[in-house]
């Protein structure tokens, strides 16, 4: 078997899979986005830009998504980084695995059930009742953007911790020792050694969380009371309520384009920050 | 630092504690504690829909994680030596597959496959011998596994490739310099080195698939996975049965993890 | 009854009986061919209280049936009883709007056996070929003459029966009067004005175009079913103005009303009754301007995977004894005279279930056009994403 045949055979299944399950559906969506809504729902083939012209009607959904996705990603990063650092650098190796596993475990319960717990915790009988009791009255949490943010951080924290942990864990501890032996302050060690070396992990974590947030639908639906609307919610609505496949396809195509642009810009930025090309091109 | 970590763990586990607490609620409502009872566990275990949904979820997660790890690893290995347009196309595909939100994958797969099936079904019926019932393609287990595999495959390729990139080239080169066959090199050098990544890819894929609601919501047809079951139950007004299911899933995964940990430890202690 | 053979020879009877014993025919086939089924049905309807419980032996209809219905719309104990009687477990999927049910069926492979469409949607289901005509021979408990035609007629399209009545009711709003400072709430104008005033952040509207848009239309005195562009534009402006003041847009409002997060919500009869029973401070109000009068039906979607179980479940739920328990649990009135006979007097005089004539007369049935009108659908979507 030549090297060439081997390569082709190895690539075959994945290639076919991508063709049928990725390219074909995306092409159909693209075609439909130029169609028209059929009277009872569904799509009538056509070639019109009407659906795209109608996009401003979903501006708020795009705005919410493009605000809460980066904010949620950033918040998750700020909370996750110290924990990942703690797990990778500070913790006794004996406990490392178990503590790491404990971060992942919540991921094993359905996000639905976990979000449901937050409906209770943020609802009138949960935290607000507690705050009321200590004298802070009239706090409303559920069905607000804040509730959605909490749900987001909660749902995606493990995804952020994990890659950062991996990159920090690979870091040679002797480097840190050497730095402190050479009299560097802890802050300087962190800034000049730890942080740059963990950038691939940060980049991966942020990317993962950001991508998932851009398409988020459940958390706003459950914790936003149908009021904090993401593009994902708009899409579900268009396909599962108003049955407007043509317009829904146009919104989907737009979402994909917006993501392509934001993610590409993001990658450029990361690359400029000096992470090695190979590490970031994992995405 | 330790304080901080404790806080984060509390943040992670308080909601889970709430879930577990309410699973022992004697009353019907999931927002008011009315005494202790384990009856919801019995109810959940005796409910064929829960058991079916669990089975479906496990089957889908296992099959798609397996397919994704296999094909993903194959592709990652092959791509190592590929440059030029093929490489570019694959990089693009992986990039797109990972970057597209699950909801778009779900919707696109739904309308794409429904459109495809509408074309294929009459053809199948025409091709089929007279009198025999032609198979009808429809959304269901197959479409769900296929959609999950597509997305997870991209994930596995990324993970394995990252590992391959970090691998010391000198080792495989040394191996072939020493006249090892390509397969020998693969088995004795490459595989052991990438195995952790493949395993990680498999586990991550399994978790993703098992927990996925959005894609399944669109492409599962009449199949019910556990998240779909939970979603429709939540809308029905949650009874503690859902909490019991969640607690059980969590309990089982914890037990498995602890068991794996113990086994690994034992393996380490063996003299080499 | 007309479909069963009148007489059957002794010999034939014994033949059939043996076949049945050997297991080559099902029990139902046996009962049908021999006329025993009809006999017991006749006997049952002649002797009150002896109506046949489902004519199925355990396991015969399979072990499951999937029901797509609305929130808080059944007595869970009845499903347990059904499982006990037939061996089939009932999976309940809950939906908050007819649009959602239609979308799920249109996308194919819903997997449902029975669903609960509202009066105005049935013609669309028929024209889209998504609904199965009903075989009344398999619904011995269905007695068309017992139903008030007003709440049963939408079940037939062009003379074919597609759906049998479940319950009827009204769409008004529930308001927690401990927060109204004694202000009398009587209209949809009050509902929206209060929302944008002292009830800010405490009101819920349905995630359902028909009622949310319809009631906003009533605010201006327009028809609940209007599809006129200028009238819809007024409704949209009202809804979008009110949106920042809403607690949530959701058709499942009971939990929030009960725990005090929400003070007022658009509400269907039975939910109003359920809330009022448990928390007397929650009142159910019908807007004086009018609003919706509706009737829900049981129907079987095309290609239901467990057809036998679907018929068995509908038949079981139509049993007046069972139906009466349902009504007592969910508080939605039934149009079935047999069922009403079994209900306590005070429930039959309950002002929530049976509103005063002048309020009732102002109400409108939903119109089929609202389901497919693209402007209403898009207005609702714009409101939600605003």
Automatic annotation (TrEMBL), chain A:
Pfam families: BPD_transp_1
Family matches, as InterPro entries: MetI-like (IPR000515), MetI-like_sf (IPR035906)
Membrane-protein topology: Multi-pass membrane protein
PROSITE patterns per the UniProt record, alphabetical: ABC_TM1 (PS50928)
Membrane-crossing segments per the record: 7-34, 68-87, 99-121, 141-166, 201-225, 245-267
Keywords associated with the record: Cell membrane, Membrane, Transmembrane, Transmembrane helix, Transport
Domain ABC transmembrane type-1, first and last residues per copy: 62-268
Gene Ontology annotations of biological process type: transmembrane transport
Family: Belongs to the binding-protein-dependent transport system permease family. CysTW subfamily.
Protein name in UniProt: Spermidine/putrescine transport system permease protein PotB
Species whose genome carries this gene: Roseovarius aestuarii
